[in-house]
Design brief:
single chain, 200 residues, alpha/beta, thrh gene product, domain 2, 2 domains, 20% strand, Rossmann fold, 44% helix
Length: 200
């Protein structure tokens, strides 16, 4: 039985931290897993910037409330879910994701959680499991699923390479150049056609 594992940000919705960087006018927060392969390092750096500027969960959630899925993402996801099981595996956080999941029709999401102080300051983060994307894919394989994975960033590569098939979607030129063996797509139509081909 096949199961498709998708990244969230950059694949179905805009990058939350880039949107917040623009809303807060803090350019350093534009840095994402497309730029920094070490997620713990990236998140600790982000939390330091939030603290420095006195920003917390409330401000980020206000930005997220204004974010819509990428054009065509919900239709793509609806069609894909009509033909196979789909799980979104993301390094985002439950406190960020809920409004976006509502706009996408409540797909299944595996993600992480933030540690938040009573005053709304984000004091830390709790990863669901180490190497969460690869660990989740391997767990699904251990219970009889064949995985097909797609993402856009460095932290997606392990799950993309671990399954029956894997794809890059709207990735960077550098990641595509470094991984020429992974088929890369820019539009949902092409991507859906490739997935259907693998699923048949």
């Amino acid at each position: 039985m096949d199961i498709v594992c998708l990244d969230l940000e950059g694949v179905l919705v805009p990058e939350i931290w880039i949107a917040f960087s623009e809303a807060s006018k803090i350019p350093e927060l534009k840095r994402t897993t497309r730029d920094e392969p070490d997620y713990n390092k990236l998140m600790n750096w982000r939390l330091g910037i939030l603290k420095e500027h006195g920003l917390g969960l409330k401000e980020i959630q206000e930005t997220i409330a204004r974010i819509d899925p990428l054009p065509g993402a919900k239709e793509f996801l609806d069609e894909l879910r009509s033909i196979t099981q789909v799980i979104i595996i993301s390094d985002t956080f439950t406190q960020f994701a809920k409004p976006l999941m509502e706009k996408l029709g409540w797909p299944t999401l595996f993600c992480n959680s933030l540690e938040v102080a009573p005053d709304g300051a984000i004091t830390g983060f709790k990863m669901r499991i180490e190497n969460s994307k690869l660990s989740t894919v391997k767990a699904l394989q251990s219970v009889g699923f064949e995985t097909i994975a797609a993402g856009d960033s460095y932290n997606d590569l392990a799950m993309i390479k671990a399954g029956k098939a894997g794809f890059l979607f709207r990735s960077t030129e550098q990641i595509k150049k470094d991984n020429p063996e992974i088929p890369a797509f820019e539009t949902y139509d092409e991507f859906l056609a490739a997935l259907k081909n693998v699923l048949n």
